[in-house]
Amino acid sequence: ALSLSPSLALIHSHTLSHSHSVLQETLPKPDFVLLTGDFSRHDNDKVPAPFEMLESLLHNVSSLLGETFPDAHTMHSPSAEAHAELLMSLGNNDVIPDYYLNASRTNNPLLDLVATAFNDTLTPAELASVRAGGYLAQDVTASLRVLSLNTVVYSVYHIPDVTKQTHDPLGQFAWLEAQLEAARQDNVAVY
After folding, report:
1. In degrees to the nearest 10, what's the CA dihedral of 26, 30, 36, 39?
2. Burial of 80 (0-12, 13-18, 19+ CB in 10 A)
3. How many whole angstroms separate alpha carbon 45 and alpha carbon 28?
4. How many angstroms separate the Cα of 165 from the Cα of each of 3, 56, 130, 160, 169?
5. What is the pTM of this model?
6. With left for phi above 0 and alpha for psi between -120 and 50, is residue 89 left, alpha or beta?
7. Which end of the chain is more exposed for a tag (fewer CB within 10 A), N or C?
């Protein structure tokens, strides 16, 4: 087999049985769930149909989260602005190949793939932000906003190296400044 990642059945079994019971004992209703990226394996470009594999994997992660955290993982209609408490960020393995993200494209098929996979868990505004640059802002409480930056483009391994071409790949710094100003005006803390 080419894949070094565990099977979905193994992940599903472990996540839903062991982890769920431990979580129910320690924190039965979390305020939010933080996903730190790297859902995919290393060298994901070496498997057959890598984009289809990544799309399937991200959909599976989204579904598993909905099953594991039904109270914290708010499913909603994509047209509604109901807020989900799912905080996600991209990892270097969530792009194909590892560390690759063309930051000069305005319509990035990879970022669209990520947003589509989390379509049932993010609001339309959050989906637009993920599609624009892989970054995300979410209010997890009335006084706390979490900002998730796309750090893939700043890695020393990132290809193509856009930091020499632009000071603000994907418009992320402008977005961050606007988010920080909005948080100041809303009088909320930012993490």
Report:
1. 80
2. exposed
3. 38
4. 35, 33, 22, 10, 8
5. 0.76
6. beta
7. N
